[in-house]
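User: My collaborator sent over this chain with a note saying "see what the structure looks like." That's all I know about it. Can you take a look?
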Amino acid sequence: MRFLQWEQVLGVKLPLKSQTRRLVKEGEFLLADRVWTGTTDLWDTVQTVYDHNGHIKWQTGRTYACQRPDGKTMGRTPKIKTIRRERLGDINEDDCWAEGIALGQTFDYTQGIPFDCYDCPICQFRYFNPQSAFRCLWEHVYGPGAWDRMKNDDVWVLEFEVFKTPQGSQIEVSRCAAGS
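Assistant: Without extra context I'll predict from the sequence alone. Here is the result:
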């Protein structure tokens, strides 16, 4: 499971991220079930993405221990909070922040004033809006022109919280393969 994909693929430290996007593959579907939580005496909704064979791919409330491609664990554990399906190109400003796009500031020497900009966390190039910075980030992972090819494709938006993995804990480990 590759929740921290940008950092793992490119080997750079990124801003705190709480959301990731994954392309919807043919045959995948999302179901939401109401379950009784006996510990809190409340009903809760569990969202599950199934693959084309009916196997669970992602599920809310579940934790995953990611491994880097070299087999070492990341030391951080993501727990999925919500799952939704949307078009890649519909990403909004708040989602860009959650994906790790950082607000920066630069200086306009012609006007003599500072102004806000948005940094691509990989190349540090600065953009005037967060969506353009996310597009740059997307193309660093999926290749040049990927945004134009994929912006109308559906993606799973996985919102998660990340916490440090205690030493020796037994959390489900999923190999972090590209594109999964």
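A starting point for your reply to your collaborator: Residues 1-15, 168-180 have pLDDT under 50 and may be disordered.
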